[in-house]
Structures are given as C-alpha cells and as structure tokens.
Amino acid sequence: MFQVRATAIGFAGDEEKYPCHFQHRIGDTFVYDGEKYTGRICPGFSAALVPRMMDFFAAGPRLVPSPQYYYAFWYAPVSRRDERNKKYDGIGFRNVLHTEVEPPRSIAALQPAHAFDWPPVNERIVGLDKSIVTCGDTRTSLMMKIEAFDLAEKGDSITYFRREMSILNRVLHKPGIELDKILSEFTKDEIEGIYPALSPILIQVLVEELALMRYVQMEGGRVTITENGQAKLETFRKNLTPEERDALRI
Q: I need a labelling partner for 18 at 20 to 30 A (CA). Which of 83, 101, 192, 217 fits?
C-alpha cells in the first residue's frame, strides 16, 4: 500500500469568469497516508477524487487502465462520412490524415491525450494515465493530479510496512540475493509467528512495492537495496524501540 497525494495543477474551465467557490489554488495538496486525510478539499470534488486516490493507495504508480484503454479506435484518424468508401469499410468513412486541434474548453478537447492523432503515437499510451481527476463543474473544472509518493506506514498498513523493512534489512546484508531466496533469510518463527505470515508470493508482492518506490532494484531475478532504501531503513530503525529492534533483528 502507498501514501497518496493529489495536487491541483490547473483549471480546464474559465476560473476567472467562473471562480472556484471553494477557493482552490494551483499547488493545493490533499494527502492520504493510510490512516487519515490531510489538506483542504471541496466536498463536491471529493466524491470523484477520493475513490481514485484509493486506487492509487492499492496500485501505487502502476497505471491501471480502464477497459476503454483497449479500444483500437484511439489510434485511428479522424474521419468524415463518404458513401463511396462503404464497399471497403462496410459503413462509409474517409480518413482525415492530420491531427484536429480543438478549441480550448470545448467538449471535443476533453478527449484523452494523443487520441486520434495523425500520425499516431508509436506506443499504446492513450487512456493509460488515470492520474488526473477533474471537477464536475464544467465551467471551472479544477484538475488535480494524483501520485503515490511513498509506502503507507500507518493504519493497518503498518504490519505490511514492517515486513517490507525487514525484507530491506535482509537484502542489505545479502546484496544481489535472488528473489526466491529471500524467504530463507527468515527463521520459521519469523515466517509464521509474525503477522502477516510470509510466503513466496507475499515476498514477491512486497518486493515489488519496494521496487516501485526505488528502495530496491531488481535485475535478472536478483534484488539489491538502493541508497534510498538504505536511508529509509535507517530512518525506520531509529524510530524503533530497543525491544522492537531486537524483535525484528534490525
């Protein structure tokens, strides 16, 4: 699980003509740390923002596309009706082989970035980035960008966070250890007697989260702690009591 931050990045509407009554400003932040929310947020906007933040709380920086991401038509050009082409495509369209530039704040301008561009982009990215949430008041349309910026270490995430720090500690002393060998660095009591009980798949999931936050790097199935990971582990260690350090062997 991850800490999540939403940052106001602009207005898709006309904020001068239709000012935000909650008085949001570019740069405003709203954070969920796994336990509580911090910051100001418009109650109307929160209905759209908070559920999306919870997606990032679970998935982190991994982009989780909506089903519409899989449509092929994002990579087709703009078209015009042309009955003469019905014998080819079955309906009757003519390609418009250039990118249409829509007026700002028009409905057509709200399409995903790079949709219907010509020539099209060379990789499948249309509809992939779901980090932008827009206010429902289309006159103003505050936009906030969501990002997972660290591991969650509060609320019920603390148990998994402690497991991740214990894994970091084992990797620190065995740089380049194979992923499937990390479990053997824990005793039977440490594997089964501490919640959550460790297993090969849980190790894989937790190491992936560590890698996403750049606390470890993975190459060829081997795991190595990074400088950021060492700093994170040291900060964690300093905040433990002597009893906790002894219990976790950190």
A: 101
